[in-house]
Amino acid sequence: MPEEYMEVYTPDELVLIEPENNAEVSEGEGVIFEWTDLYAGGGWSYSGEIRTESGGSALGFNTDGTSYTVVVPSNSAGNYLWRVIGSRSSSNAPLGLSRSDDGMSYEIEEISISYPRKLIIEPAPAD
Question: When comparing pLDDT for 42 and 87, which is higher?
């Protein structure tokens, strides 16, 4: 048996707020990605993933808050999918181990994943 064990619990998904599904933004524009976490107690870390429709990684971000601003890079026009993954270690998660009396340490990881949304990036307007 390993000395440490991780139990994984998946609560309900995070809910994305902004930008709306199929939102159109322009290159060079600042975009605020925002989501709600429905869970009290804090301690959540969030990873945002922005991928091409074919699944290639385009951009990522990490934050402890529930929003993050990204300036859309030049030459990035196209269709993208984005989602947010929240995680935290918690001794109060619903799942646990009953074998703590044998000295084995354990950690409970809570993970929450949003459904993806589409983001359409338009070329920068001509001057």
Answer: 87
Pairing outcome for strands 105-113 and 4-9:
parallel
List helix spans (H) across the chain.
Answer: none
- Report the domain count for the chain: 1
Amino acid identity of residue 69, one-letter, is: T
Q: Which residues of 29-38 are buried (b: 16+ CB within 10 A; e: fewer)?
A: eebebebebe
Alpha-carbon distance 46 to 5, whole Å?
A: 23
Q: Kind and range of the H or E element at 91?
A: none
**127 within some domain:** no
* pLDDT tens for each residue of 11-52: 667 889 999 999 999 999 999 999 987 665 577 889 999 999
Residue carrying structure tokens 């269709």: 79
Look up the CATH number of the domain holding residue 66.
2.60.40.10
If we measure between CA atoms, which residue out of 84, 105, 109, 99 comes closest to residue 34? 84
pTM of the predicted model, to two decimals? 0.75
Would residue 40 count as lying in a domain? yes
